[in-house]
Amino acid sequence: DAGRRRGGAAARRRGGVGGGMIGGVVDLDDDALLDWRSKGFWIPHGSVSAAELARRRPRIFDGDFTWPLMVLRRSAAHGNIATMAAYCRRHGLDFAPHAKTTMAPGLLRAQLGAGAWGLTVATPNQALVLRRLGVPRVLLANEVLDPVTLRWLAEQAAAGWEVYLQVDSPAGVEQARRAAAGVEQAHGWRDGDGTGHAAPGRLRILAELGAPGGRTGVRTLDELDMIARAVADAGSVELAGVTAYEGMLPGRDAVDGFLDRMVDGVSRLAGAGLLPDRPLVSAGGSAWFDRVVDRFAALPAGVRVVLRSGASVSHDDGLYRRTGAFRRIPSEGPLTAALELWAQVLSAPEPGLALAGLGKRDAPQDEGLPVALEIRRPDGTLAPADGVTVTRMNDHHVYLTVDDGVALAPGDLVRFGISHPCTAFDRWRHIPVVDDGHHVVDVLHTYF
Q1: Can you say whether residue 337 is alpha, beta or left, with left for phi > 0 and alpha for psi between -120 and 50 degrees?
Q2: I need a labelling partner for 369 at 20 to 30 A (CA). Which of 103, 155, 190, 385 fits?
Q3: Are 207 and 231 contacting, i.e. CB atoms less than 8 angstroms apart?
Q4: Confidence (pTM)
Q5: What value does the CA radius of gyration of the chain take, rounded to a whole number of Å?
Q6: Cβ–Cβ under 8 Å, residues 365 and 392
Q7: pLDDT in tens, 102-130
Q8: Which residues does 17 contact at the CB level (< 8 Å), separation at least 6?
């Protein structure tokens, strides 16, 4: 164990994706033990720490790994983090990237180290993980109605944790109020002073606006006003601002119209004296954050705008390559796909068809199938995967249509890009981080 601690300290000095403590976030990756349970790693006997593996810097092709295997390219991930940080600085925005994309402490630390204002989560369980990691500021981008988790959130807020909840119903306001009031009563604290501005350490509430037919959020500005007034009247909780998610809308006109309506809602609440001096206004998935910047220029002065784009850290070769904001504003980007999946061709049973050992348990398919990018022959030579197309997937097989004249044989490796990183990281508990020569320089540990 002393050796493990020394190895962890060495990795922290190394300063890689998984090394160090930034913004108070604890380092769990370096001392994570890898063994026979670690998918993609070939460790039939004993175990090895992530720090020791990174110290040896093995290439993924030299026997320490097996197929399929997902890796993260360090240069691409660091470049993406720097690109988003610079974009937010240029436009005077704060950034709270959605942690649910990766749930990997190494990447969360790197984002905070690059200047992220906070992190976003989708569930109380994810909030618990980030609290244990030491993340100082978290937006929980869903209404919470479970009294047990609300009580815990209220207790953590009272202890000084800066946590925000979003609400779109009177029931959500009431459940948050009860939890917060219960904590105040348990500690013998007095209720609010009647000004509508809660004392430090209370749950912070964001009123959520939604779109008809869309996901969560009230549908009208009258309902947004009603939620804001309910929070202001509740005591024990604080109205911090307004939030929304525009990512599921069908196109630019719909996105712009929705964001304009959000600006109107914020202006209405501010005019009624319902918002604090510096309200938080949050939006911005990974596809339309450029439109958020454009339309939110009309917000009242003094608003803190927080983007939550989570997929930007790894980008992809599918959904966000097609729809990402930097395609519309290339001078501000770009982002680069950082995730690679390697799989071996297992069979070529008939002309024009090959099957590789990669399936639904390894790669996302909810927003598009993987994309074949490169072929690596057993002798190490490389060839582009032009003419190789993924057509479908089983649990552990991917079907490849192979054009005439393209050589693809059993034993070849294929490098795939993925579509939609938010359903890629959760399939892998440990993810090697590689340099551009595919030497392992770190290992990410995910917490889903």
Answers
A1: beta
A2: 103
A3: yes
A4: 0.91
A5: 24
A6: no
A7: 999 999 999 999 999 999 999 999 999 99
A8: 72, 74, 77, 78, 106, 107, 110, 433, 441, 442, 444
